[in-house]
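Extended Data, panel c. Modelled sequence:
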Amino acid sequence: MVLLFPGQGAQHNRMAEGLYGHDPEFTQTVDTVLAMFSDGDQLRTDWLSDAPSLAIEDVRRAQPLLFTIGYALGRMVLSWGVRPAALLGHSVGELVAATLAGVFTPRAAVDLLSDRVTKLAGTPPGGMLTVSAQESDLASVLVRHPRVSVGAINAPRQIALTGFQAELGAAEEDLRAAGYTVRRVAAGKAFHSPALAGVFAGPYPIDEHIMHSPRIPLWSAFTANRVLTPDPYSWAGHPAEPVLFWPTLEKIMAEGPCLLADLGPGQGLATLARRHPDVRSGRSAVTALLPVRDRDPAVERETGERARQILLACQRHQNPHGRTR
């Protein structure tokens, strides 16, 4: 079993609301983590509101809530007795995975995330857009728009471009004129752009001595490798580095058949994972803990219960090394 944690773009109002007050582990974890943020009460209010004080796409809301909900979902799954063979996060989802693996305490993770959010909030308006193309197809567009860069490799034909507002808009026009399918990500900043490198080159906000080796196998989508000994300085630069989700997923799946579980709203990572040849062939499988942006709490609980049954069935049929028979 591999647990997947999404990043910016997956968030929406009231995500996972159906589990809050319903599952004790999820509810307690959400309350505990939100209390660590300086504006935790307002975060909760905005999360559960149709008219939040800050839009859910705002980095000051999206990042803390994605971390809180993702970590709470992970704690809930572990409370069921699930023992994953690997954890993989996308963007801020990597911080969720690392905290679940024990690299960071929740307190340390909140401090790191709060520092990131403050820095990101001070950067110029920007964004990300996904393009249905291979990376090599976009070379000419990137030459014409040098301040636009690849922010994520999500799948063989799904690349996320990143940049500041004007430059990204011009690149989007060129791509649409060339016939590419382009979709804006719900992000108002140039996440994973080298243009942000200077912003994240300052002092690391967390003492390296409070970082620990993962207790659960952890993969980094920034290096496409296992995390063995965490490097505090590499963590500091993540917001300015591209996310190598697909190359990392391929390395994980090369080790054997997997059940991939998307622990986030929207099923974005589940959708990507279903494109993998091993999944299409039936050698591996995909499940998701939450429905696709369904606002009905009952549907969220039903989807979560189905995922619980699938994960526990997989747990019962794993060999001692954590791989499915």
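The CA atoms of residues 147 and 163 lie 6 Å apart. This feature is highlighted in the accompanying rendering.
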